[in-house]
């Protein structure tokens, strides 16, 4: 759904999430698998698998599987349960670094208006 308003900060496009039941079931199953792997990793740390050569590699592989499983959970959640929103933003030119004027692009005179320089240093997005 696209809106015709182009004011800065307005929502340009909003697509609601699908919220599929299959994705919710998959997230629950992946979470149960995640808990099982975390339990196995904790058990391995507590019993000293890390002191053995192959046990250390096994703990590293378990840790990798834990993070990959977590990545899939987050991917499914982002894809299925978060809306797709595009917000209109202001496009700035390269010289517009902190809302400076085009006349100040080459720099300003040292000690010109000291109070304005202090205000701009304290609050860089000060509106003119």
From TrEMBL:
Pfam families: DUF7318. This is Uncharacterized protein. Keywords: Membrane, Transmembrane, Transmembrane helix. The keyword Membrane applies. The chain crosses the membrane at residues 21-45, 57-77. The lineage of its organism: Archaea, Methanobacteriati, Methanobacteriota, Stenosarchaea group, Halobacteria.
